[in-house]
Amino acid sequence: MCKIIQYLFGKERPFRQLLFNIISVIGFAGGLISFIVSLITKLPVLQDVIVFTALLVLILCIYLANAKGKLQLASTVIIVMITMLLMPAMFFTGGGVYSGMPSWFIMGMVFTFLLIEGKLCYILLALQGVIYTLCFLAAYYHREWVQPFPSESGVYLDAVQSMFVAAMVIGLIIRFQTNTYERMLRQSIEQNRQLEEAKDTAMRANSAKTQFLSHMSHDIRTPINGIIGMLDIAEDSPDDLKKQAECREKIRISSNHLLSLINDVLDISMVESGKVELSDEVFDIRTLVKDCIAIMGDTARERGISLEVQLGKIGHPYLYGSPLHLRQIIINIVGNALKYNQEGGRVAVSLEETGSTEERAEMRLCVRDTGIGMSKEFLAHIFEPFTQADNGARTKYSGSGLGMSITKGFVERMGGTITVDSAAGVGSTFTVLLPFRISEEPARVEESKPESDSIDGMEILLVEDNDLNLEIAQYMLEHAGAHVTCARNGEEAIRLFAASEEGKFDCILMDIMMPVMDGLEAARRIRALGRTDAGKVAIVAMTANAYVEDVKKTRDAGMDEHLAKPIEKATMYHTLSVLYRRRHPEQH
């Protein structure tokens, strides 16, 4: 029964079909009662046959409307067959005006009003009006045509049940219409609210876009201005070697700052789009934290700030996770602690395991500083993009104002939380809680360390389509003693490698985005060549595509390592020398 009710009156039903089902089902119930009353009051058998026929027609029409989707046809059949033919017949065989038939006539016209559309509605109503009027006139002038009820109690019983059914139908229709109106009103209010929220969101997005362009225009132009200015000074002082050295150093500082800004913009874009790809590799969290502190050590010493690290109880140091993003989280927080500090200040970093299960462990990282701190009002916005404590801080301390927003995005993407406690003029404490899957201690590989990362004598195939990038990379490699062969796209690289003597090239430095054939496809085809050295030669991606998913693509294509542009000499020399030693252990 519940399934039938859900089928007939479920919310997924269209409005008119629900209305049809309500009237038809109540009408069927009323007709069934009329049939029982007819049997009890011993009306003529013809009355019973007519009522029973009407019930069968109702069942057929309910089936047509719901199972076959023929709502208009079903409604028309009910009006013609029942309200215009069977009901007038019942009027004469079931007591005429001294029965419940006038109530049924009213229901018939209500049914037509509600369910028939267009001109047909008015045509059927007119026909019903004519037919019902003729019934009353015929009963008035030819009373012998009307079969009276056998008893007075039957008249009252039929009138009461008809009145009750009519009241139920009309009441349910009104209730249904009211509920529908209220639901539509609520939906309208909710839609208006959503539209207002969308409008506010769009306005905030537009404001954020304007703010973004304003901040980035200032922040990017500042180091570019420094680079251009230092170049002008260097050109005006060709014989002053000391000034030339100073200009080069300041150009390098400005270039690194510009690169940092660009990286922040790209990172926040990835975070906000939800496209941050986390790796899942084994790492030692103790070593990672110590490495981060070592990286920031020079900055701390230059600014006269004490940087300390304390490793608490860590029962599971080997974990599965994304060390690249964890490293960026730590460096961002510690970098801010150093930036917004003062000479003689202190930054303390602590790490401890706060709990674990058989498979997972939770780590707590705390970074405390004695810097300028933050007001309570500013703390509410610390993780919003482009946020700095005051307008002056932007100029005094520099930076994009994106670091904390990026950090929070990485932390949440890793399933953790970040909180901050701070007071202006006192300092700040950042607390990060991160869950990790536990790993066993990886097997140690003993590798002898060379005295230097030499690439002297290496044969390198350099694949790069940009003239300036090609010139820079070629100079770096040849300056370090390598022999370089150049190719301008992946297809040319394949041709040069296939035409070379087997074992000629020790390494291929491969750009990714190139015309004719990209670096990924070129790497796959080189690995597939039928030569012994095709699977042995080191292939290193040298590209501006620097995200985790980009690194994965290069590995899937058969490349060994990934170098992100702009290329750092020391990193490139170290990577190439390590790969060379792995493939030629007999020479070392």
What features would you highlight for this structure?
Rossmann fold; elongated; Heat Shock Protein 90; alpha/beta; 7-stranded mixed sheet; 3 domains
The major pleated sheet works out as:
7 strands, mixed
**Strand-residue proportion:** 5-15%
Distance between the termini: 85 Å
Low-confidence segments, given as residue ranges, are 390-397, 447-451
| Count of extended strands | 12
User: Which structural class is indicated by helix and strand composition?
Assistant: alpha/beta
Q: Which series of helices and strands comes N to C? A: HHHHHHHHEHEEHEEHHHEEEHEHEHEHEH
* Number of continuous helical runs: 18
Q: Count structural domains.
A: 3
Described by the principal axes of the CA atoms, the overall outline is: elongated
Mean pLDDT figure: 83
Portion in helices? 55-70%
Integer-rounded radius of gyration: 42 Å
Please describe what this structure looks like.
With 588 residues, the protein is α/β, with parallel strands linked by helices. The chain folds into 3 domains: 2-190, no CATH class; 281-438, Heat Shock Protein 90; 459-587, Rossmann fold (3-Layer(aba) Sandwich), CATH 3.40.50. Helix content is 60%, strand content 13%. It is built from 18 helices and 12 strands. The protein has helices at 2-9, 15-40, 45-67, 71-93, 101-115, 118-141, 152-236, 241-273, 285-302, 323-339, 376-379, 391-397, 403-413, 467-479, 490-499, 519-527, 548-556, 569-583; strands at 281-284, 306-311, 318-321, 346-356, 360-369, 417-423, 427-438, 459-463, 483-487, 507-510, 538-543, 561-564. Strands 1, 2, 3, 4, 5, 6 and 7 form a 7-stranded mixed beta sheet that branches. Strand 4 and strand 5 (360-369) form a beta hairpin. Helix 4 runs antiparallel to helix 5 (101-115), helix 5 runs parallel beside helix 7 (152-236) and helix 7 packs antiparallel against helix 8 (241-273). The longest helix is centred in the first third of the chain and has 85 residues, at 152-236. It is elongated, with a radius of gyration of 42 Å. Mean pLDDT is 83; it is low at 390-397 and 447-451.
